[in-house]
Structure formats: structure tokens, C-alpha cells
UniProtKB/TrEMBL annotation:
It comes from Pseudictyota dubia. The keyword Repressor does not apply. This is Uncharacterized protein. InterPro entries: CFA-57, WD40/YVTN_repeat-like_dom_sf, WD40_repeat_dom_sf. The keyword RNA-binding does not apply. Keywords: Coiled coil. Residues 175-289 form a coiled coil. SUPFAM superfamilies: WD40 repeat-like (SSF50978).
Length: 292
């Protein structure tokens, strides 16, 4: 979407995208005091509609700043003459009705000074804040503006003698002292914050070093215990191996010894049987001789 108004420079912009149908509506104030409203349905094929509000009268009627109310129902427009104009939002025509409230200056006073133009305007739920070309800042209740503003392009003009009646004057020296005090406090806060950050960084570095040293010592102890365990494991395996070998050796020796004993026993048994047989033969011979 592109809406172009040639030969115009904009300085203040308000946008309303609160509609449920995805449409977008915006208003912009140009340097020549013209207020332009652009409405777009949100469809790329649709052409945006543009309304321009101008020709309100003198140069003091030029709109210099604008903002929307919180409920998106009122457009507050500041003028070069220091007035606040209230338009129903969205704007209904090129010359919509409005209400006006005198904000920054009440006509021309005895000193001959002219109206103070509004350079900025913002709205909250209950207050409207405006800034003037003379460096002033005004804060007014929205309820008061609604009550004291009139329709049909007219406005309620208060008594010039009561202008700035609610303003609190501040001594410039006291203001400067407060500013210096605030700056000093900010410097002290910044210094304390820096010291605190440095202390935290130092503590963090110290604890990291201590943890690293402790971790290295722990790793050394673990490595020493691992080596000791490996050595004990090796000795244990060697002992088991020797024990198995001893058992195998003893078993082999036992078998050999048993075979030798068996052989000796069989040999002796054979010798005794042979001797017994010879003795028996002799006894039989003697018995025969006796019987004769």
C-alpha cells in the first residue's frame, strides 16, 4: 500500500490498527499545517483513501502535532496557536466538526507576545501532555479538556489573568543544583556498579582458579589411585596365575607319585605271590614226603 501526496513533508504520525477487520488508518501532520488521513482496508488490491484537512483560517490554525486517545475514539491535534483540537476518530469528512481547548497561550498579553505553538502531543488514559515552541510542557486532565472545550469550531477562552495560575515556578539555581546532585548520584551509582562488577569478576576469577587447582589435585589423586589399583590388579592376577600353576604342578606330581606307588605295590605283590607259590610247592613236597 502506498499513498503519496507530492510536495508535502510530514512531521507527526499516528496509526490505528485496532480494527477487527484488519484495516489500517493513519493520520499525519505536514510542515505546512495540513492534516492528512489515510485509510486502507488491508487488501492489496484496494486503493487507500486520503482525506486532507486544511484551510482552518489563519496561520495559527495550522496543525503541528497529533495523537490518538487511548480508546482510539478521539484525535487530539495541536495547532500553531497553542490550541488543542478534538476530532472524532475516524475523521468523517474533509471539514469535520471539532472542539477546541486553549492550552499554551491565551491570546496576546500586555507584553505583546503571541501564541505559543504546540510542537508535541501525547495522550494517556487520564492526561494529555503537550510541549510548546517556547520549551514549556503542559499536562492537563482529559476530563477537563472535554468539559471546557466547545463544539462548532469555538473554544472556551479563560481569563488571561489566570493563565499559568497553576504553574509551579522553579529557581534555576535550585534546578541546576538538583541536576548536579542527580548527576553526582548517577556517577556514584555508576562507580558503585563498576566496583561491584569488578568485585564480582575478581571473586569469580578467584573461585575459578581455586576450582581449577582443586580439580587438578583431585585428578592427580584419582590418577594415583588408578595406578595403584592397576598395580594391585596386576599382582592379584599374577598370584592367581602362580596358584593355578602350583596346583597344576602339584596335581601332576601327585599323579606321578601315585603311579610310582601303584607300580611298586604291584611289583611287591608279584614278588610275594611268587614267593608264596614257591613256599606252597615246598610245603606240598614236604607233605608228600611225610605221608610216605
Amino acid at each position: 500500500m502506498n499513498a503519496l501526496v507530492r510536495g508535502t513533508n510530514y512531521g507527526s504520525l499516528v496509526v490505528d490498527n485496532s480494527s477487527t477487520d484488519h484495516s489500517i488508518r493513519a493520520a499525519a501532520c505536514s510542515a505546512n499545517g495540513i492534516l492528512s488521513e489515510v485509510a486502507w482496508s488491508g487488501n492489496a488490491k484496494d486503493v487507500p483513501t486520503v482525506k486532507q484537512l486544511s484551510g482552518f483560517g489563519s496561520q495559527f490554525d495550522k496543525i503541528t502535532a497529533a495523537c490518538l486517545s487511548v480508546d482510539k475514539k478521539t484525535l487530539y491535534a495541536g495547532t500553531a496557536g497553542g490550541c488543542i483540537r478534538l476530532f472524532d476518530w475516524p475523521i468523517c469528512s474533509d471539514k469535520p466538526p471539532f472542539r477546541e481547548y486553549m492550552a499554551h497561550h491565551v491570546g496576546n498579553d500586555a507584553s505583546g507576545a503571541g501564541p505559543v505553538g504546540i510542537t508535541g502531543i501525547r495522550a494517556t488514559k487520564h492526561y494529555l501532555i503537550t510541549t510548546g515552541s517556547d520549551g514549556s510542557i503542559f499536562l492537563a486532565q482529559i476530563q477537563t479538556i472535554a468539559e471546557q472545550s466547545l463544539g462548532d469550531g469555538t473554544f472556551f477562552e479563560p481569563d488571561p489573568r489566570s493563565f499559568n495560575n497553576g504553574v509551579v515556578l522553579v529557581c534555576s539555581e535550585s534546578y541546576k543544583e538538583q541536576q548536579e546532585l542527580i548527576a553526582d548520584l548517577e556517577r556514584r551509582i555508576s562507580t558503585l556498579q563498576s566496583d561491584h562488577d569488578f568485585a564480582l569478576h575478581s571473586k569469580d576469577s578467584m573461585w575459578q582458579g581455586a576450582m581449577k587447582e582443586l580439580s587438578e589435585k583431585t585428578d592427580e589423586l584419582i590418577e594415583g589411585e588408578r595406578q595403584r589399583f592397576d598395580e594391585l590388579q596386576r599382582k592379584h592376577e599374577e598370584t592367581i596365575q602362580r596358584h593355578v600353576e602350583d596346583l597344576e604342578t602339584k596335581d601332576s606330581s601327585y599323579s606321578s607319585t601315585m603311579r610310582e606307588l601303584e607300580d611298586q605295590y604291584e611289583h611287591r605283590l608279584a614278588v610275594e605271590i611268587e614267593r608264596f607259590d614257591r613256599l606252597k610247592e615246598k610245603m606240598d613236597s614236604l607233605q608228600k614226603e611225610v605221608n610216605k
